[in-house]
Amino acid sequence: MSNLVTNRLAQERKDWRKDHPHGFIAKPSTKRDKNGDTVTDLTKWQCAIPGKPDTIWAGASYPLTLEFGNDYPAKPPRVAFPAGFFHPNVYPTGKVCLSILNEDKGWKPSVSIKQILIGVQELLDTPNMSDPAQQDAYDQLRKSKATYEKKVREQARKYGANSGGAGDEIILL
């Protein structure tokens, strides 16, 4: 990993610790080095996004992974929910389809982790129907909003505070 990537992610971590939105989690993962010691891995972050209050997404904390390549911040990180996450702008693999994460549309090297997470939270309740990534969720929302909302509420229960959802999937450091 280059010094530029390391320095930027270390600064992001420092900034996050000083100021982050209530209910959000963003922490670098840990890994074992060649000596078997546990070290911080700044290139992979485990995150959680709370559903906005008064929306069908409320009451849950959704796990999200950010993976930063050697070309970060020139190129955006890979941002993903768990595979199978139900949303029109989330691919079946879990990868999030959002303009600020697309280097050809809205990515700028100045976009922060905080801005990414807030953008993803906003996307949950306001999907971009002109740029679908998942046919099933897109079709459900287009054809039957009630059916779509029912599936989202089921997913919210899965990741709810006391369901063992997000807490079991996020490594807290």
UniProtKB/TrEMBL annotation:
Belongs to the ubiquitin-conjugating enzyme family. Residues 1-37 are annotated as: Disordered. Residues 10-22 have a biased composition (Basic and acidic residues). This is SUMO-conjugating enzyme UBC9. SMART domains: UBCc. Its main location: nucleus. The active site is at residue 97. The keyword Transferase applies. It is found in: Nucleus. GO terms for cellular component: chromosome; nucleus. Pfam families: UQ_con. One of its GO terms (molecular function) is ATP binding. Pathway: Protein modification; protein sumoylation. The keyword tRNA-binding does not apply. Keywords: ATP-binding, Ligase, Nucleotide-binding, Nucleus, Transferase, Ubl conjugation pathway. The lineage of its organism: Eukaryota, Viridiplantae, Chlorophyta, Mamiellophyceae, Mamiellales. Residues 4-161 form the UBC core domain.
